[in-house]
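Input.
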Amino acid sequence: MAKIVLLGAGSTSFSIELLKDISTLPSLEGSVLSLVDIDEHRLHMAESLVTRYCRESNMKLEVHSYTERRDALKGAEYVICAVKIGGYGPLEKEREIAEKRGFYRGIGDRVSCYYGGIGAYHQIRFLEEVAKDMEELCPDAWLVQTANPVFEGTNYVTKHFGIKAVGVCHGHNAYKEIAEELGLDLQFVNAEVVGFNHCVWLTKFLYKGKDAYPLLDKWIEEKSEEYWKSEKYMDPNRVFSKDQLSPGAIEAYRLYGVMPIGDAVRSGTPWWTHTDFETKCKWYGKNGGFDSEIGWKSYLDSKVDIQERLNEIVESGKSVMEEYRPSETTEQHIPFIDSMANGNERILTLNVPNKGAIEGLPDDILVEIPVLCNATGIHNVQIGKLPYKVMNHVILPRLARAQSIIDAYENHSREMLILMLCEDQRTKSYEQAKALVDELLAQPWNKDADAHYL
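Output.
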């Protein structure tokens, strides 16, 4: 049994994904799930779908719903945060403004929504409020952070508050795309994926105990060109894939010596592969890959389609289980909770304080690494040194960027936001950077951020 709070339960498809995982773990039977969302309509939808799912699957789960976060947090043991303040609308407007000033696809880590808008202000401020409430109402609970930016947000919370926090993402699983394309049986694949959230790398790749990178090298030499011309790769519906074996990913492998995994195919690949739509099509396939103007729109449209389908289920009374069969998903939130609450030991890939796991990084910085989870807590797998090219040219610059975002928030520094933008290769002058930062902060949804960054 566990007392679980889900912040942002109005993201109903994510709520159902968590239920699917709970349904596969009898050890969590009888747990309490508290749904929280400030949107009463979406909260009602989520509660309806969750309770019907439990009834149809005979799942013994106590379900509550709240519009007030503090009411749900009292006595909580696990707080899953899936809140995206303001949704995607303002972020897309900010992207349009940036593009007019010469910044194709906006500013930030390839996909600017990682930061939650200019300076990640709204997301960090929200997490600050949640952490304060948790210190008061459930000081022993775990914050399970899943809304972006996981890296900056979770680092900020662990730096400033006494609560326990862990970042959760599923991007590391994308190494399986490589293994499957190489024709490898996944049960014999041993992969180690490490780095920072959305910037992880395949540092160990074994098949039946032997190094599998030579198999990848052979595939690149003999089959890659054919693959990039195939219907499978050119299928426009692949915008939802992470393009694990795209020319852009292989270019990063050529440069740094190990493969980028998941979102690192975007955030860790060279800037010159992202300069315009035609260039993105060259490096990431038809429609320019996941974060192009076409690929990203398809992703946002798919979220609308999912929500409409869930609305239809609620209004029509159709079976929820027909749409969402009980099964184990690729999410790690519920397995993590099960390990902590019930002592069921498992290896997960989570964002946790480094504590020496990766040499050359501060102990208190959160790294995404394999960890052993059981009743005694979280135990880091020792990684050692990362390949020096990845460390010097990707990891350390990414750490500096994250630290700058946090420092700018802590010091109310507009100047630091401008200086970060000055580091962008597209910036032509300080005046250009300042004008863009000022314009973004002047937008009505950024009123509080404008007052915060002096």
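The first strand starts at residue 3 and ends at 7.
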